[in-house]
Amino acid sequence: MNLSALTDHGAAPGEDPVALAWRALETVEDPELPALKIVDLGLIRFVRPRADGRLEIGLSPTYVGCPATEVIHRAVQQALCSARIGDAVVTTVLSPPWSSDWITDAGRQQLRMCGIVPPERTVANLRDIVRADRPPACPRCQSAATECISEFGSTPCKALHRCRACLEPFEYFKCI
Amino acid sequence: MSAAAAAEPEALFRYVLRLGDLSLVLGQRLGEWVGHAPALEEDLGLANIALDLIGQARLLLSYAGEIEARGRSEDDLAYLREPGEYLNAVLAEQPNGDFGQTIVRQVLIDAFQLELYERLSASTDLRLAAIAAKSVKETRYHLRYSASWLVRLGDGTEQSRTLAQSALERLWPYTVELFAEDDLDRAMADRHVAPPLAAVHAAWSTRLDDILAQATLARPGDHPHAWHGKRGQHSEHLGYILAEMQHLQRTYPGARW
């Protein structure tokens, strides 16, 4: 794709390209959790103009081996192209590492609506790794009598739990 | 790029390969469980850990390729090196055996990587520090998974306990190599690129004592053991792992998804 051709139809003079880019990025969904925007997951670290006039987007992976990372990378470029932002650079930002603390309130609400318990604790409390988290309450019946089935669920970011009251399994977004 | 890399690129290249190869080989080994684990949850758990490890390996091997500056990518380094060029400690390449043996190997390496990455997060090499700070978060979950399984197996039935203890006796000697400091390890520690291995060993040892006590398993004695995977001298197992992992690229050079 000839990206430079798109700049000819880019932002109108006076329109802030950074704000335009943020609007475009707000449409990008997580491929594994389509209800969730990547902006609400806290994956976009910055949008800033570079010295050469191109925009630079800082994108953080949730987990280093997460296969969704490359899909998200492409989706971000696609959204910027569609918004006629022009030739933007997407940079992977590792440091400081992404934290589940950065999921926004809107993101947490979306997770709850999908039946996924959002991360409750902050990473500061995770020093003692051998002892498991306090079990989260069941998202269906709110019972506190739940147990962890596995630290690893259908995607790297989620753990599998089960409610001992209503017997339903549910997913818990891990705190990292 | 940090000053350390500029000063001694060959040493840093080899050090980063040691870290990356440990994750890559262990990740490939865990991948052998996919479709064969005792329960669906464990299939998912082991596959997820393998995925994290391969993600770490990708970051580390990409960095190694940049340090070397001969145009080798992460894929070139993973798929086109011979066993003698791999610099992982031989513990990572030991066979999966039964589930208990896989879990013992995992606890030993998870605890090592946890203690190492926590300290590497403060490396003077900023790229290495960033990779370690990212990886340490995932490694905490790996150890929580493997340690809780070891407690269940050790403090479980007579059979699970016997198998876990014998796996521990079999694999423990290989841990000596993880902490055997050579010139390269010392050079990295002197430049504050890496922590002194003695500090990692002390923390690892305390953590292992705690986990083994909960699992009611006996800690085996330390005996001198001369493995040199970190210098490219491997057990017979690595060749078979690489034969499978590299088959496609060797057969169809340059093949891409």
Descriptive overview:
- The complex is a heterodimer of chains A (176) and B (257).
- Helix content of chain A is 22%, strand content 19%.
- Chain A is α/β, with parallel strands linked by helices and 176 residues long.
- In chain A, a hairpin with a 5-residue loop joins strand 1 (44-49) and strand 2.
- Chain B is mainly alpha-helical and 257 residues long.
- Chain B has helices spanning 3-7, 9-31, 40-68, 74-79, 99-120, 126-154, 158-171, 175-179, 183-190, 197-214, 237-251.
- Chain B is globular and about 55 Å long.
- The relative contact order of chain B is 0.15.
- The model of chain B is unreliable at 1-6 (pLDDT under 50).
- The chains are: A alpha/beta (176), B mainly alpha (257).
- Chains A and B meet through loops of A and helix 3, helix 6 and helix 10 of B.
Biggest pleated sheet of chain A: 4 strands, mixed
Fraction of residues in H or I helices of chain B: 55-70%
- The whole-angstrom Rg of chain A is 19 Å
Look at the structure and give the CATH class of chain B: Mainly Alpha
Largest sheet of chain B: none
Instruction: Classify the secondary structure makeup of chain B into a structural class.
Output: mainly alpha
Helix content of chain A: 10-25%
Q: Which class do the helix and strand fractions of chain A yield?
A: alpha/beta
Assembly form of the protein: heterodimer
Q: What is the class of the largest domain in chain A in the CATH system?
A: Alpha Beta
Average the pLDDT over all residues of chain A and give the rounded result.
81
> What is the N-to-C order of secondary-structure elements of chain A (H for helix, E for strand)?
HHEEHEHEEEE
Name the CATH superfamily assignment of chain B.
Ferritin, core subunit, four-helix bundle
Most residues in contact, chain pair and counts: A-B, 27 and 35 residues
Q: What distance lies between the first and last C-alpha atoms of chain B, to the nearest angstrom? A: 31 Å
The third-level CATH topology of chain B is: Ferritin
What is the mean predicted local confidence, pLDDT of chain B? Answer: 94
Order of helices and strands of chain B: HHHHHHHHHHH
Compute the number of strand runs of chain B. Answer: 0
Within the CATH hierarchy, at the fold level, what is the topology of the largest domain in chain A? GMP Synthetase, Chain A, domain 3
